[in-house]
């Protein structure tokens, strides 16, 4: 057996990894699964300085000064400008002071300006994709419009991704225009399904979440463009439901229900205008820490070092496992920065309020995209996915998983791979993810209940499952980072495909419980629906949560505000 890792292993591995990072001019690459952050193709180091941009070069001196590629500088500066614009928007264009029309126009024009600044003429793709999708909705009709919009939007996105990858520069890590298009594609397809649900399907055919999100009238062209291209979310999202966005723009007061401690009575009251200042400040602090970590630590731990011949030949197996985990963990702060900043921008504009908890504290996580603590300490594959890129997970659930007629898990992973892009590594990651998800589900359903009675045993079980989850996640997403087939297979072969084989053996040996159709994974950020409807929705895998995640299994304390909307 290989020797245990020691200080000499660590001393040898980390400087060598840093050398590889400097030699290749790359930072540690993106972590797992759902990732549409503009930094998902962001490099670092000297090579990245040469990255070109189709957007403005006005900030080139700043790019040279901070030694970051111009496209990344444009993105960060535009997001900071959007943050200031959001504060101005909430203060001077508040719904009580101006009309919804003006708010729609200003939000759309500012969004298109930021897109033009970052991506130049490529920003026209955003308008073209949105415009053609709107035309399809109008001429096709509500019965089949969701299918046509889905095929067109995803096809248009894929065409742009193929063009970017295979015509311009394969493997170029830069903040490119396909990132915002991924978010717009989510919005186009989500709204098409919501209109189909609200204007064609019968009420009894809808799930509780579909009933809450259903749109009862066709949006105007201005509303549609504002939803897709507003300045708060055009660069980094996150995805939000059309009803939530329109409610925010029109300034409708929320009818909230707060459960009392005994759970027997509800106190109803009108929400006026809660302040987002504390939430925004906290999120900006997280952004600062994440950016600092990315600028100082991430570049010394390149993921590519996992397939370095010298590293594999000289470092012990335990040390290779540790470095695999550390290198992928070090890549995540760039996503924490981009998504948390995007969330703060929406909150600063007054968007993202989700009601009050039982203590009366305001909650600004309606469209939050991640929960850092539960990502880093996840004890199951599912728990990681539930807290990573939350809004994309909800989109996959709503447009694919709960509507699939067969193999919903497989179809959902395939859709996720297509949506992410055309690199072969994406497909290797998501196909591996299917095996990991099914095997993890089978193990937890058959084994976990034996270890939850005794607290000490449960603690040991959680520690073991945390280690297994972090290794499995890192193992799964390496092809997502390496992009190409050859280095991906080089990595998996160096591990002798051990986790693939283990997953297949688990699926062959352990029975996989068949879940009821329509019983799906609990939404980390739910649409707020009435208690009665909430109790009707069964969630697949609700028993799969570790008790360390109990806070997310607690009953939501806000009711659906949508019945008051006459969409």
TrEMBL record:
Membrane-related topology note: Multi-pass membrane protein
Principal localisation: endoplasmic reticulum
InterPro entries: LPLAT_7/PORCN-like (IPR049941), MBOAT_fam (IPR004299)
UniProt GO BP: lipid modification
GO molecular function ontology, one term from the record: acyltransferase activity
Keywords: Acyltransferase, Endoplasmic reticulum, Membrane, Transferase, Transmembrane, Transmembrane helix
Transmembrane segments: 73-93, 105-128, 425-443, 463-483, 489-510
GO terms for cellular component: endoplasmic reticulum membrane
Pfam family name, one: MBOAT
Localization: Endoplasmic reticulum membrane
Residue segments, region Disordered: 21-46
The name this protein goes by in its record: Membrane bound O-acyltransferase domain containing 2
Organism: Chelydra serpentina (Snapping turtle)
Species lineage: Eukaryota, Metazoa, Chordata, Craniata, Vertebrata
Gene: MBOAT2
């Amino acid at each position: 057996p290989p020797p245990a890792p020691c200080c000499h292993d660590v001393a040898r591995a980390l400087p060598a990894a840093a050398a590889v990072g400097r030699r290749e001019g790359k930072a540690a690459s993106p972590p797992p699964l759902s990732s549409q952050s503009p930094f998902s193709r962001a490099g670092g180091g000297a090579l990245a300085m040469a990255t070109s941009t189709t957007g403005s070069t006005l900030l080139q001196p700043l790019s040279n000064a901070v030694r970051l590629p111009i496209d990344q500088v444009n993105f960060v500066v535009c997001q900071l400008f959007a943050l200031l614009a959001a504060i101005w928007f909430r203060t001077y264009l508040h719904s009580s002071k101006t009309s919804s029309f003006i708010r729609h126009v200003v939000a759309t024009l500012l969004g298109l300006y930021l897109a033009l600044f970052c991506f130049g003429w490529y920003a026209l793709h955003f308008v073209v994709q949105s415009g053609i999708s709107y035309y399809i909705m109008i001429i096709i009709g509500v019965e089949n419009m969701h299918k046509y919009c889905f095929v067109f939007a995803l096809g248009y996105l894929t065409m742009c991704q193929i063009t970017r990858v295979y015509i311009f520069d394969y493997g170029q890590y830069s903040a490119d225009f396909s990132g915002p298009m991924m978010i717009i594609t989510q919005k186009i397809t989500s709204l098409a399904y919501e209109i189909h649900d609200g204007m064609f399907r019968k009420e009894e055919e809808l799930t509780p979440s579909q009933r809450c999100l259903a749109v009862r009238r066709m949006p105007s062209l201005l509303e549609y463009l504002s939803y897709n291209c507003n300045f708060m979310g055009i660069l980094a999202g996150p995805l939000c439901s059309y009803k939530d966005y329109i409610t925010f723009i029109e300034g409708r007061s929320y009818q909230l229900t707060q459960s009392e401690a005994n759970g027997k009575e509800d106190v109803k009251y009108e929400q006026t205008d809660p302040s987002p200042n504390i939430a925004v400040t906290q999120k900006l602090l997280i952004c600062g820490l994440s950016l600092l970590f990315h600028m100082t630590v991430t570049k010394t731990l390149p993921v590519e070092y996992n397939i370095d011949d010298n590293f594999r030949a000289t470092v012990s197996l335990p040390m290779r496992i540790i470095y695999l985990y550390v290198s992928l963990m070090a890549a995540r702060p760039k996503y924490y920065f981009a998504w948390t900043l995007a969330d703060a921008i929406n909150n600063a504009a007054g968007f993202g309020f989700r009601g009050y908890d039982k203590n009366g504290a305001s909650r600004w996580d309606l469209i939050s995209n991640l929960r850092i603590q539960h990502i880093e300490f996840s004890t199951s594959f599912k728990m990681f996915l539930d807290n990573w890129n939350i809004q994309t997970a909800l989109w996959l659930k709503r447009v694919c998983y709960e509507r699939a007629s067969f193999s919903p898990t497989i179809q959902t992973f395939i859709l996720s791979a297509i949506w992410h892009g055309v690199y072969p590594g994406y497909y290797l990651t998501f196909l591996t993810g299917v095996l990991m998800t099914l095997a993890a589900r089978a193990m937890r359903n058959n084994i976990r209940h034996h270890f939850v009675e005794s607290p000490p045993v449960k603690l040991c079980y959680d520690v073991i499952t945390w280690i297994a989850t972090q290794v499995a996640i890192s193992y799964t997403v390496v092809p997502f980072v390496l992009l190409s087939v050859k280095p991906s297979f080089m990595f998996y072969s160096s591990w002798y495909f051990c986790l693939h084989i283990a997953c297949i053996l688990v699926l062959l040996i352990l029975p996989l419980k068949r879940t009821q159709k329509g019983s799906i994974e609990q939404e980390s950020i739910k649409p707020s629906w009435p208690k009665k409807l909430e109790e009707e929705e069964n969630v697949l895998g609700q028993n799969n949560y570790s008790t360390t995640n109990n806070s997310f299994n607690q009953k939501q304390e806000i009711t659906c505000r949508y019945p008051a909307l006459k969409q």
